[in-house]
Amino acid sequence: MRWFAVATAAALLAACNGTTGDNLITFDAFASGAAGASQPFTVSGFNIQLTTATMLIGAVYIDQDATNATGFDTPVCIDTGLYSAQVPGSCCTGGPVDLLSTTPQAFSIGGNGTADVGRTWELWLFDPASGDINTANTAQVVNLQGAATRISDGAVFTFGAIVTINDNRLIPDSDPSQPGLNPICKQRVIQIAGIDLQLFQGGTLSVTIDPRVWFDEGIDFSTLPLVTSAACQLDANSDYGTAEYCIPDSNYETGLGALQGQELFTGIHTGGGAAYSVQYAATQ
Questions:
Q1: What is the rounded distance in angstroms from the CA atom of residue 171 to the CA atom of residue 235?
Q2: Interior CA angle at 113 toward 29 and 61, to 5°?
């Protein structure tokens, strides 16, 4: 786990290379949902209306290097590039981010780093209060509820989803001689390239998340299991509200909902720049 002090590392770098871009900074950090996320949307033959959408962010990190200079494609969760900023605390102070609201919700800890340009960034999905990114973590990182109406005949499927990230998402090692190629931390880190973020003292970092993009894999809501089924009760704290069906909390279920559990997590984990965006601006 990377609970190092960016400020300390930056000071050492500045002393070694004599550059002026490593001035230490602090900043505020917020997260929110995307505009329109609370409105109905259409994907793969269904009109979907989300009534609940929350996400627990454990931390945010910004890297100065492009994708090919980091650990994106390696078994390493701490990138090999140079981190320029961190927000090493969860969002939000009042609980997980409400993704159906555009109101900025503050991280529990402010950000710090150096006055450099960020080229890539990461969202860490875990609960710092219950462990680190490499260990068993009981946190529900995503909670969803809503209704999907099949366009062809008007049939309505109310659904819920709880997403945790443990062995239920762990990719099995394909080569017994090389254990650890797919550590669980890789499933808890969303890595996003293609940003150009100039950091400076006293600014505001804003993370925006659009949960509608998570459904772009084409989930079929008509073949989900009932919430009373074993496939829906994998989490001891399962609560789907008034939903009739669930998207199972696993990539490895069999039977009803098996594919949908994989598809939802794929949408969350690989939504990239479409689902997740970050901005840095002067504090208003």
A1: 19
A2: 60
Task: Report the alpha-carbon angle 62-198-106, nearest 5.
Answer: 60
For strands 46-55 and 97-98, give the pairing.
Answer: antiparallel
pLDDT per residue as tens, the chain (284 positions): 343 334 333 333 333 333 345 799 999 999 999 999 999 999 999 999 999 999 999 999 999 988 655 555 666 677 666 789 999 999 999 899 999 999 999 999 999 999 999 999 999 999 988 778 988 888 899 999 999 999 999 999 999 999 999 999 998 876 665 666 789 999 999 989 889 999 999 999 999 999 999 999 889 999 999 999 999 998 777 889 999 999 999 999 899 999 999 999 999 998 877 999 999 999 87
176 belongs to a structural domain: yes
| CA–CA distance, 106 with 150 (Å, rounded to integer) | 37
Let me know if residue 177 belongs to a domain: yes
Interatomic CA distance for residues 135 and 165, integer angstroms: 10
Residue 216 located in a structural domain: yes
Q: Which one, of 154, 166, 146, 163, lies nearest residue 100 by Cα?
A: 146
Q: Which amino acid, residue 279? A: Q
Query: Which residues span the domain enclosing 49?
Result: 6-278
Domain count, the chain: 1
Give yes or no for a contact between 79 and 72, defined as CB atoms under 8 angstroms apart.
Answer: yes
Domain membership flag for residue 1:
no
Whether the Cβ atoms of residue 78 and residue 2 lie closer than 8 Å to each other: yes
